[in-house]
Amino acid sequence: MRQTVLILTILISLISCNKENSPTTATDKPSEQKTINLTVDGNARSFIVYLPTAYNNAGKMPMIFAIHGGSGTPDGMINIANFKTIADRDKVVLVYPAGIQNNWNDGRPTTPNQLGINDVSFFNQMCDYMINNYSVDGTKIYATGISNGGFMSSRLGCELSNRIAAIAVDAATMEATTIAPSCNPGRPVPAIYIHGTADPLVPFTGGQMTAGGTAGGTVLSHFQAIDKWVTINGCNATPTVTDLPDIANDGTTIKQRVYSNGANGSEVVSYVVLNGGHTWPQGYQYLNEAIIGKTSQDMNACEVIWTFFKRFKRQ
User: Fold this and answer.
1) pTM of the shown model
2) Structural domains present in the chain
3) Which of the two ends of the chain, N or C, has the fewest CB atoms closer than 10 A to its terminal CB?
4) Are 40 and 116 in contact (CB under 8 A)?
5) CA–CA gap between residue 289 and residue 287 (Å, rounded)
6) CA 203 to CA 53: how far, in whole Å?
7) Residue 47 to residues 79, 123, 137, 233: CA-CA distances in angstroms?
Protein backbone atom coordinates (compact mmCIF):
# COMPACT_ATOMS: atom_id res chain seq x y z
CA MET A 1 0.00 0.00 0.00
CA ARG A 2 2.79 2.37 0.96
CA GLN A 3 4.55 1.59 -2.31
CA THR A 4 1.39 2.45 -4.29
CA VAL A 5 0.98 5.78 -2.48
CA LEU A 6 4.63 6.62 -3.10
CA ILE A 7 4.30 5.93 -6.86
CA LEU A 8 1.17 8.08 -7.09
CA THR A 9 2.93 10.93 -5.25
CA ILE A 10 5.88 10.80 -7.65
CA LEU A 11 3.58 10.79 -10.71
CA ILE A 12 1.60 13.80 -9.44
CA SER A 13 4.85 15.63 -8.73
CA LEU A 14 6.17 14.96 -12.24
CA ILE A 15 2.93 16.14 -13.86
CA SER A 16 3.02 19.34 -11.80
CA CYS A 17 6.63 20.01 -12.77
CA ASN A 18 5.87 19.48 -16.44
CA LYS A 19 3.02 21.99 -16.31
CA GLU A 20 5.14 24.58 -14.55
CA ASN A 21 8.16 24.13 -16.79
CA SER A 22 6.37 23.86 -20.14
CA PRO A 23 7.11 26.91 -22.33
CA THR A 24 4.24 29.28 -23.02
CA THR A 25 3.73 30.22 -26.66
CA ALA A 26 2.46 33.64 -27.68
CA THR A 27 -0.86 33.58 -29.46
CA ASP A 28 -0.49 34.02 -33.20
CA LYS A 29 -2.13 37.24 -34.33
CA PRO A 30 -4.51 37.19 -37.27
CA SER A 31 -3.58 39.07 -40.42
CA GLU A 32 -4.04 42.82 -40.28
CA GLN A 33 -4.55 45.47 -42.95
CA LYS A 34 -4.27 49.18 -42.25
CA THR A 35 -3.73 52.49 -44.03
CA ILE A 36 -0.72 54.57 -43.01
CA ASN A 37 -0.50 58.31 -43.65
CA LEU A 38 2.78 60.18 -44.04
CA THR A 39 3.80 63.71 -44.99
CA VAL A 40 6.61 63.61 -47.55
CA ASP A 41 8.13 66.84 -48.90
CA GLY A 42 5.03 68.67 -47.69
CA ASN A 43 2.63 66.31 -49.48
CA ALA A 44 0.10 64.05 -47.80
CA ARG A 45 0.92 60.46 -48.81
CA SER A 46 -0.59 57.12 -47.87
CA PHE A 47 -0.10 53.39 -48.28
CA ILE A 48 -1.85 50.19 -47.29
CA VAL A 49 0.11 47.75 -45.12
CA TYR A 50 -0.81 44.07 -44.95
CA LEU A 51 0.66 42.12 -42.04
CA PRO A 52 0.40 38.35 -42.50
CA THR A 53 -1.15 35.85 -40.14
CA ALA A 54 1.16 35.16 -37.15
CA TYR A 55 3.33 38.15 -38.03
CA ASN A 56 4.00 38.67 -34.34
CA ASN A 57 5.98 35.40 -34.16
CA ALA A 58 7.65 35.53 -37.59
CA GLY A 59 10.80 37.50 -36.72
CA LYS A 60 12.26 39.85 -39.33
CA MET A 61 10.11 39.54 -42.46
CA PRO A 62 10.68 40.34 -46.14
CA MET A 63 8.60 43.18 -47.61
CA ILE A 64 7.11 43.69 -51.08
CA PHE A 65 6.01 47.01 -52.54
CA ALA A 66 3.15 46.25 -54.97
CA ILE A 67 2.69 49.42 -57.05
CA HIS A 68 -0.53 50.27 -58.89
CA GLY A 69 -0.71 51.45 -62.48
CA GLY A 70 -1.74 54.86 -63.83
CA SER A 71 -5.18 55.96 -62.59
CA GLY A 72 -5.09 52.98 -60.22
CA THR A 73 -5.36 52.68 -56.45
CA PRO A 74 -3.81 50.49 -53.74
CA ASP A 75 -7.12 48.60 -53.37
CA GLY A 76 -7.23 48.09 -57.13
CA MET A 77 -3.67 46.73 -57.08
CA ILE A 78 -4.64 44.26 -54.36
CA ASN A 79 -7.34 42.97 -56.72
CA ILE A 80 -4.99 42.76 -59.70
CA ALA A 81 -1.97 41.34 -57.87
CA ASN A 82 -3.10 39.76 -54.62
CA PHE A 83 -0.02 38.56 -52.75
CA LYS A 84 -1.93 37.91 -49.51
CA THR A 85 -1.95 34.11 -49.79
CA ILE A 86 1.81 34.19 -50.29
CA ALA A 87 2.21 36.67 -47.43
CA ASP A 88 0.30 34.46 -44.99
CA ARG A 89 2.08 31.29 -46.11
CA ASP A 90 5.64 32.64 -46.15
CA LYS A 91 5.35 35.55 -43.69
CA VAL A 92 5.84 38.53 -45.98
CA VAL A 93 4.79 42.13 -45.29
CA LEU A 94 2.98 43.79 -48.19
CA VAL A 95 2.89 47.52 -48.92
CA TYR A 96 0.46 48.92 -51.50
CA PRO A 97 1.30 52.65 -51.88
CA ALA A 98 -0.86 55.40 -53.41
CA GLY A 99 0.45 57.72 -56.12
CA ILE A 100 -0.26 61.45 -56.30
CA GLN A 101 -3.48 61.81 -58.31
CA ASN A 102 -3.27 58.02 -58.78
CA ASN A 103 -0.03 58.23 -60.78
CA TRP A 104 3.74 57.96 -60.30
CA ASN A 105 6.71 60.04 -61.38
CA ASP A 106 8.42 57.25 -63.31
CA GLY A 107 10.37 59.69 -65.53
CA ARG A 108 7.67 60.05 -68.19
CA PRO A 109 5.51 63.24 -68.28
CA THR A 110 2.92 61.96 -65.79
CA THR A 111 1.05 64.39 -63.55
CA PRO A 112 3.41 63.78 -60.57
CA ASN A 113 6.36 64.31 -62.92
CA GLN A 114 4.93 67.66 -64.05
CA LEU A 115 4.30 68.61 -60.41
CA GLY A 116 7.88 67.76 -59.43
CA ILE A 117 6.86 64.99 -57.02
CA ASN A 118 9.83 63.01 -55.70
CA ASP A 119 8.39 59.51 -55.54
CA VAL A 120 11.80 57.93 -54.98
CA SER A 121 11.96 59.90 -51.73
CA PHE A 122 8.47 58.64 -50.84
CA PHE A 123 9.55 55.02 -51.22
CA ASN A 124 12.72 55.68 -49.23
CA GLN A 125 10.66 57.14 -46.37
CA MET A 126 8.22 54.22 -46.51
CA CYS A 127 11.21 51.90 -46.08
CA ASP A 128 12.30 53.89 -43.01
CA TYR A 129 8.79 53.83 -41.57
CA MET A 130 8.29 50.10 -42.05
CA ILE A 131 11.71 49.16 -40.66
CA ASN A 132 11.23 51.44 -37.64
CA ASN A 133 7.67 50.39 -36.85
CA TYR A 134 7.41 46.75 -37.93
CA SER A 135 9.59 43.65 -37.95
CA VAL A 136 10.87 44.15 -41.50
CA ASP A 137 14.20 42.85 -42.77
CA GLY A 138 15.82 45.87 -44.44
CA THR A 139 17.93 43.62 -46.70
CA LYS A 140 14.82 41.95 -48.17
CA ILE A 141 12.72 44.79 -49.57
CA TYR A 142 11.38 44.28 -53.10
CA ALA A 143 9.40 46.33 -55.63
CA THR A 144 6.94 45.18 -58.27
CA GLY A 145 4.25 46.94 -60.26
CA ILE A 146 2.11 47.04 -63.36
CA SER A 147 2.19 49.70 -66.09
CA ASN A 148 2.98 53.09 -64.46
CA GLY A 149 3.82 51.08 -61.32
CA GLY A 150 6.11 48.87 -63.38
CA PHE A 151 7.95 51.89 -64.78
CA MET A 152 8.22 53.16 -61.19
CA SER A 153 9.70 49.81 -60.12
CA SER A 154 12.34 50.21 -62.84
CA ARG A 155 13.17 53.67 -61.54
CA LEU A 156 13.46 52.36 -57.98
CA GLY A 157 15.88 49.68 -59.16
CA CYS A 158 18.00 52.41 -60.74
CA GLU A 159 17.82 55.05 -58.00
CA LEU A 160 17.03 53.25 -54.73
CA SER A 161 19.29 50.21 -54.93
CA ASN A 162 20.48 50.97 -51.39
CA ARG A 163 17.01 49.82 -50.22
CA ILE A 164 15.52 47.66 -53.00
CA ALA A 165 16.90 44.10 -53.25
CA ALA A 166 15.19 43.13 -56.54
CA ILE A 167 12.47 44.35 -58.91
CA ALA A 168 9.73 42.77 -61.02
CA VAL A 169 8.12 44.81 -63.81
CA ASP A 170 4.86 43.87 -65.53
CA ALA A 171 3.36 45.51 -68.64
CA ALA A 172 6.10 48.15 -68.60
CA THR A 173 9.77 48.73 -69.34
CA MET A 174 11.85 51.83 -68.51
CA GLU A 175 11.59 55.49 -69.48
CA ALA A 176 14.11 55.98 -72.29
CA THR A 177 15.29 59.60 -72.30
CA THR A 178 16.23 60.35 -68.68
CA ILE A 179 15.89 57.25 -66.48
CA ALA A 180 17.60 54.66 -68.71
CA PRO A 181 20.64 56.78 -69.68
CA SER A 182 21.33 57.67 -66.04
CA CYS A 183 20.54 54.25 -64.57
CA ASN A 184 23.69 53.30 -62.68
CA PRO A 185 22.78 51.64 -59.39
CA GLY A 186 25.50 51.13 -56.83
CA ARG A 187 24.93 47.37 -56.73
CA PRO A 188 23.51 44.57 -58.90
CA VAL A 189 19.70 44.54 -58.91
CA PRO A 190 18.08 41.22 -59.92
CA ALA A 191 15.15 41.94 -62.24
CA ILE A 192 12.15 40.31 -63.91
CA TYR A 193 10.30 41.84 -66.86
CA ILE A 194 6.92 40.41 -67.94
CA HIS A 195 5.43 41.87 -71.12
CA GLY A 196 2.71 40.92 -73.58
CA THR A 197 3.52 41.17 -77.27
CA ALA A 198 0.00 42.48 -77.89
CA ASP A 199 0.06 45.10 -75.13
CA PRO A 200 -2.07 47.95 -76.56
CA LEU A 201 -0.81 50.61 -74.10
CA VAL A 202 2.91 49.99 -73.57
CA PRO A 203 4.50 48.96 -76.90
CA PHE A 204 6.48 45.75 -76.59
CA THR A 205 8.91 47.15 -79.16
CA GLY A 206 9.34 50.44 -77.29
CA GLY A 207 9.27 53.96 -78.65
CA GLN A 208 6.66 56.67 -78.18
CA MET A 209 3.65 55.83 -76.01
CA THR A 210 0.46 57.19 -77.56
CA ALA A 211 -2.41 54.75 -76.93
CA GLY A 212 -5.12 54.72 -74.30
CA GLY A 213 -4.77 58.25 -72.98
CA THR A 214 -1.48 57.40 -71.25
CA ALA A 215 1.00 59.99 -70.07
CA GLY A 216 3.06 59.40 -73.18
CA GLY A 217 6.81 59.51 -73.13
CA THR A 218 9.45 57.42 -74.83
CA VAL A 219 10.17 53.97 -73.44
CA LEU A 220 12.63 51.16 -73.97
CA SER A 221 11.50 47.99 -75.70
CA HIS A 222 11.16 44.86 -73.60
CA PHE A 223 14.50 43.50 -74.75
CA GLN A 224 16.25 46.87 -74.42
CA ALA A 225 15.22 46.89 -70.75
CA ILE A 226 16.44 43.32 -70.37
CA ASP A 227 19.77 44.18 -72.04
CA LYS A 228 20.13 47.20 -69.73
CA TRP A 229 19.91 45.08 -66.59
CA VAL A 230 21.98 42.24 -68.04
CA THR A 231 24.78 44.78 -68.58
CA ILE A 232 24.34 46.43 -65.18
CA ASN A 233 24.34 43.09 -63.36
CA GLY A 234 27.08 41.49 -65.47
CA CYS A 235 24.93 38.50 -66.40
CA ASN A 236 25.57 36.03 -69.21
CA ALA A 237 24.50 37.64 -72.49
CA THR A 238 23.13 34.33 -73.78
CA PRO A 239 20.00 33.22 -71.90
CA THR A 240 18.59 29.82 -71.09
CA VAL A 241 15.31 29.70 -73.02
CA THR A 242 12.24 27.72 -71.93
CA ASP A 243 8.72 27.56 -73.32
CA LEU A 244 6.37 27.40 -70.36
CA PRO A 245 3.62 24.75 -70.58
CA ASP A 246 0.49 26.01 -72.36
CA ILE A 247 -1.73 24.94 -69.48
CA ALA A 248 -4.69 27.21 -70.21
CA ASN A 249 -5.19 27.05 -73.98
CA ASP A 250 -6.31 30.69 -73.78
CA GLY A 251 -4.60 31.99 -76.91
CA THR A 252 -1.41 33.02 -75.09
CA THR A 253 1.92 31.28 -74.54
CA ILE A 254 4.92 32.35 -72.47
CA LYS A 255 8.63 32.11 -73.26
CA GLN A 256 11.09 32.44 -70.37
CA ARG A 257 14.65 33.66 -70.87
CA VAL A 258 17.01 33.46 -67.89
CA TYR A 259 20.23 35.51 -67.92
CA SER A 260 22.29 34.09 -65.06
CA ASN A 261 25.69 34.30 -63.36
CA GLY A 262 25.51 38.01 -62.60
CA ALA A 263 27.54 39.80 -59.94
CA ASN A 264 26.66 38.69 -56.41
CA GLY A 265 24.60 35.88 -57.94
CA SER A 266 22.19 38.30 -59.59
CA GLU A 267 19.93 37.29 -62.45
CA VAL A 268 17.66 38.87 -65.06
CA VAL A 269 14.58 37.05 -66.35
CA SER A 270 12.40 37.88 -69.35
CA TYR A 271 8.85 36.56 -69.68
CA VAL A 272 7.45 37.27 -73.14
CA VAL A 273 3.71 36.64 -73.19
CA LEU A 274 2.86 35.90 -76.82
CA ASN A 275 -0.49 37.57 -77.59
CA GLY A 276 -0.69 38.83 -74.00
CA GLY A 277 -2.13 42.23 -73.18
CA HIS A 278 -1.63 45.02 -70.66
CA THR A 279 -2.35 42.59 -67.86
CA TRP A 280 -1.00 40.61 -64.89
CA PRO A 281 -0.76 36.85 -65.66
CA GLN A 282 -3.47 35.02 -63.68
CA GLY A 283 -4.43 38.39 -62.22
CA TYR A 284 -7.77 40.18 -62.33
CA GLN A 285 -9.00 41.20 -65.79
CA TYR A 286 -9.59 44.77 -64.64
CA LEU A 287 -10.90 46.06 -68.00
CA ASN A 288 -12.49 44.41 -71.01
CA GLU A 289 -10.19 42.37 -73.25
CA ALA A 290 -11.02 44.70 -76.14
CA ILE A 291 -9.34 47.53 -74.19
CA ILE A 292 -6.35 45.94 -72.46
CA GLY A 293 -5.93 42.58 -74.20
CA LYS A 294 -5.73 39.06 -72.85
CA THR A 295 -4.74 38.03 -69.32
CA SER A 296 -2.63 34.91 -69.70
CA GLN A 297 -3.50 32.01 -67.43
CA ASP A 298 -0.29 30.12 -68.20
CA MET A 299 1.56 31.28 -65.10
CA ASN A 300 0.80 32.87 -61.75
CA ALA A 301 2.76 36.12 -61.81
CA CYS A 302 2.57 36.60 -58.02
CA GLU A 303 4.07 33.16 -57.35
CA VAL A 304 6.73 33.57 -60.06
CA ILE A 305 7.74 36.99 -58.73
CA TRP A 306 7.91 35.87 -55.09
CA THR A 307 9.88 32.72 -56.00
CA PHE A 308 12.38 35.03 -57.71
CA PHE A 309 12.47 37.67 -54.98
CA LYS A 310 13.07 35.31 -52.07
CA ARG A 311 16.34 34.10 -53.62
CA PHE A 312 17.92 37.54 -53.20
CA LYS A 313 18.74 40.02 -50.50
CA ARG A 314 20.49 43.37 -50.67
CA GLN A 315 24.24 43.00 -50.14
Assistant:
1) 0.91
2) 29-309 (3.40.50.1820)
3) N
4) no
5) 6
6) 39
7) 15, 10, 19, 31
